[in-house]
Amino acid sequence: MLFAVRCRASQRDGRAIRSERERNGRRTLVAGEEILQDFDSVIDAAWWSAKNIPGFLTEHEARFIGLLAAYSASTVRGHIVEIGSFKGRSTIILATVARHYGLPPVVAIDPHNFNSIELQHHRVTEDSSSFAEFESNLKAAGVSDVVEVHRAYSADLATNWNRPIGFLWIDGDHSYRGAKLDFDGFSPYLVDRGLVAFHDALHEFAGPIRVFAEDVLRSDRFGASGFVGSIAWSQHRPGASSRWDSMKKSLARGAERLIPFVSDERPLRGPRKMLYKLNRSRVPRSLPNVSEWIAQLQ
Which of 11-15, 90-94, 273-277 is the least confident region? Predict the structure, then answer.
């Protein structure tokens, strides 16, 4: 297991890494690092419950969004908001983490129908709905009570939203307009040190990569950032973002090379697809050592 291997390699005598920093003569944990003590068992259980549910979130990515949710739980007290639930794979991951770390119910937003991009890529019909399977899967996983379900369009819900957000997971409409509406509607409610992540930013969609490059990496509201699998993530650090300027500029250069290939929102074919994949291969997207990842968020 990705996190199990990396966390256990960093442990001694079955205990998570502890910071070497000294405070009042005592060793202290770096903020967020206490989650390493039991994160492996939590995310293993979450993935076991979710892995057989149809969806496009890989195990590698599922474990990473679980880490994002767990980190937010240990450092800030905002809500987890999920935009785009489909049949519940990511919802179950997030809800399992939320329950374990004492967070409020996950806010899961999805109209459970399909827009034109989804019709094309998911091969469903216009009257299809994922809602019945979504509810059934939450019940089977035993997390229905820790999910606040909104069968609605995210843009409609955003108009009356006023709650703090610790982790914003954007996996809804992947068009530029859709991703932009989701980000603009909910990101103003991210708390300091909260996290935002976009799914499929390194797949052939215009929305996630463009919004991440233009509204996150080029913004002074966000700090530490990166890619893991197809996920683009960043930490909300208004007033302190300059520490990560070099990191963000480097990531932006790689991300912006991909935008011309997907900006017209048409499927890639032939040489254009090959060039897109070549440029995508140059974008770093592996998870660093988990304790080092946590340290860079301080």
Answer: 11-15
If one counts every other C-beta atom within 10 angstroms of the C-beta of residue 2, the result is: 16
Residues ≥6 apart with Cβ < 8 Å to 53 = 87, 88, 89, 92, 137
pTM: 0.88
Does the CA dihedral 135-137-140-141 come out positive or negative?
Answer: negative
What whole-number distance in Å separates Cα of residue 33 and Cα of residue 89?
Answer: 26
Structure tokens at 36: 């390493």
Q: Are 154 and 83 in contact (CB under 8 A)?
A: yes
Report whether pLDDT(135) > 80: yes
Judge whether 227 and 200 are in contact, CB under 8 Å. no
Residue 147 has pLDDT above 60, yes or no: yes
Identify residue 126 by its one-letter amino acid code: E
CATH number attached to the domain at 2-296: 3.40.50.150
User: Taking a C-beta distance cutoff of 8 angstroms, is the pair 134, 95 a contact?
Assistant: no
CA gap 271, 35 in Å, rounded: 45
**pLDDT tens-place string over residues 249-287:** 999 999 999 999 999 999 999 999 999 999 999 999 987
CA gap 26, 36 in Å, rounded: 20
Element (H, E) at 95: helix 89-100
Q: Average of pLDDT values for 101-108?
A: 95
What is the three-class DSSP state of 18?
A: coil
DSSP 242: G
Q: Would you call 86 exposed, middle or buried from its count of C-beta atoms within 10 A (0-12, 13-18, 19+)? A: buried
- Whole-angstrom distance, CA of residue 297 vs CA of residue 235: 7
Packing angle, helices 59-75 and 39-50, rounded to 10: 130
* The pLDDT of residue 32: 80
